[in-house]
Amino acid sequence: MKIFGDSISGNCLKVKWTADHLGLAYDWVETGVQKGETRTPAFLALNPAGQVPLVLLDDGRPLAQSNAILLHLGRGSDLIPADPYLESRVLEWMFWEQYSHEPYVAVARFQVRYLGRSPETLDPGLVRRAEGALDHLDTALKGRDWLVGEAFSLADMALVPYTRFAPEAGLSLQSRPSVSGWISRCETYLGLPGLGVSP
Amino acid sequence: MKIFGDSISGNCLKVKWTADHLGLAYDWVETGVQKGETRTPAFLALNPAGQVPLVLLDDGRPLAQSNAILLHLGRGSDLIPADPYLESRVLEWMFWEQYSHEPYVAVARFQVRYLGRSPETLDPGLVRRAEGALDHLDTALKGRDWLVGEAFSLADMALVPYTRFAPEAGLSLQSRPSVSGWISRCETYLGLPGLGVSP
């Protein structure tokens, strides 16, 4: 398998982390969005949407969209609950992540970390929605170890990368103890180096 | 089953169409977003994200996010390909819809149809991305009857509602013959009254 990804992208990292966790062999093909490497004719032939992550499966067939890739790689593993309702709750979180979390938390982080803007100059509507997404997560995680059921799942895998980067956008995790504790649990579970965001 | 939905929302309509297509019994609970009915304490107790559609399954358990609901209701039906790779391609389109199509095509349509703005006054970036989403669909559908494989699937179900409404935002379907033909096929397949967008 080949994973085409940009190492600064949480959407790409979650594919890498999923493959690592499942012990899948892959070649990582670094593909820089800011360098225009997702807009070359060769890349567009693989993914006409011009987005990373993209995987070429072992049989050469392409698959795009980070969360679709996670669900493909994780099929039949303990990353997806066996109970159909809980599996659907995992999907609910994964769609929520792409619609109500990533467009705000990830975009705010990108503007600060990679475009050099100060958090104070971000669009107030963007910040408000990012804060709202983190509040929603904090409420959902109150008294819970994981987002769905009693085990780490693809819901946690999909949400943790950009949530973990939120302080890079000036968004507070220390004021959200349920999120902070959950990030630490995810880091331990995935064997990631801690970012020191726990309260 | 109860479906809480706003009849002007394509995200809600696709849940209704899926339930209708599968012959599932349900009560439709009209829930107006603009009336604030998704922000009442009673509704937030069911879905803390404050969004429709929301379903209460027959056992009373809630499920949100339109595409997660489609996948839950459609599990084991002919709306999801049996081949795992094709199933993942359906997921790829469903995540693309929520990230790269709905936030532009649906938002443009809402601003024109329900906020009374003229298409000429829309944010040019919004229009450019909506046009790009429709172009991407048109290219993908060239020479194909359906988005994935050789049969109507949840990929088509997820994409057709807001695509069909695109002319309400001043976005052209007549100039995109592959999309127009596909909409007509979806309308026929789902037994919907045609909107007359075919070329």
Helices and strands in order:
The structure is a homodimer of 199-residue chains.
Chain A: E1 2-5, H1 10-22, E2 27-30, H2 41-46, E3 54-56, E4 62-64, H3 66-74, H4 84-113, H5 124-141, H6 154-164, H7 177-190
Parallel strand pairs in A: 1-2
Antiparallel strand pairs in A: 1-3, 3-4
Helix pairs in contact in A: 1-3, 1-6, 4-5, 4-6, 5-7, 6-7
What report would you give on this structure?
- The structure is a homodimer of 199-residue chains.
- Chain A is an alpha+beta fold and 199 residues long.
- The first copy, chain A, contains seven helices and four strands, in the order βαβαββααααα.
- Chain A has a four-stranded mixed sheet, covered by helices on one side.
- In chain A, strand 1, helix 1 and strand 2 form a beta-alpha-beta unit.
- In chain A, helix 4 (84-113) runs parallel beside helix 6.
- The first copy, chain A, starts with a strand and ends in a 9-residue tail after the last helix.
- The model of chain A has no long low-confidence stretch (mean pLDDT 95).
In a nutshell, what does this entry contain?
Two copies of one chain form a homodimer. By secondary structure, chain A is of the alpha+beta class.
Give the key terms.
homodimer; Glutaredoxin; Glutathione S-transferase Yfyf (Class Pi), Chain A, domain 2; 2 domains; globular
